[in-house]
Amino acid sequence: MTKYQNIDWRNKSNWGCNARSSPQSDLTYDGITLDPLEVMFVKVKGFLLQRNITYSLKAAQYDLWLENETSRNVSLLLSNKYASNEFSYKAPRILVAKARGSSCFDAEFYRQRNRDLMDMVNSDTTAWQHYTFYGQFERRPHRFLCSMNYSKYFKN
User: Fold this and answer.
1) CA torsion 147→142→90→79, rounded to 10°?
2) Are the C-beta atoms of residues 34 and 59 closer than 8 Å to each other?
3) Do 72 and 97 share a domain, yes or no?
4) Which of 41, 44, 81, 90 has a Cα-to-Cα distance from 128 of 20 to 30 A?
5) Structural domains in the chain (count)
6) Residues with Cβ < 8 Å from 25, sequence gap 6 or more?
7) Are residues 70 and 123 both part of a single domain?
8) Where among 51, 79, 107 does a domain terminate?
9) Which domain holds residue 127?
10) Residues near 94 by Cβ (< 8 Å), separated by ≥ 6?
11) What is the distance between the alpha carbons of residues 58 and 39, in angstroms, rounded to a whole number?
12) Burial class (CB in 10 A: 0-12, 13-18, 19+), 136
């Protein structure tokens, strides 16, 4: 892992790095996720795959592709897990948008910056709906006028 190159792990004073968080869960590696291309080996165990840990999923997918490289497995070439189960990938972000609510969404800004939607998105409600279910995944320009209040969902 690039961040921890040349660290002497025998020295216990170095064990507090990364705020004493394991870098093996999603986003716990200083705000990003481990990548098989950054590290030589990553764990790919059943429980990590079941938890949808992205670096394990990525490593397992690379392994599958490499194993089938010479087989010319047409179904593998034509398949796409995202396309076949799109909602499961989008659901978390849709739920966050719905939890956030439309009250801080700048619908006017959204309509002005996405002029190709003018005929279809002609009210604040339709702008919010479009952003929630499509626009955020298309990386369309948008903005919120206030920050998300996470405290109403999580207690410390």
Assistant:
1) -150
2) no
3) no
4) 81
5) 2
6) 53
7) no
8) 79
9) 83-152
10) 132, 133
11) 12
12) middle
pLDDT in tens, the chain (156 residues): 667 777 787 888 877 777 877 777 777 777 878 787 776 667 788 888 898 888 888 888 888 888 887 777 778 777 888 888 899 989 999 999 999 999 999 999 999 999 999 999 999 999 999 999 999 999 999 999 999 888 888 776
Three-state secondary-structure class, residue 144: strand
**Residue 119 and residue 55: Cα distance in Å, rounded?**
41
Locus of tokens 């396309």: 83
For residue 68, give both structure tokens. Answer: 């089938």
CA angle 134, 89, 54 (to 5 degrees): 135
> pTM score, two decimals?
0.65
Query: Residues 44, 105: one domain?
Result: no
Q: Give the number of residues written for the chain.
A: 156
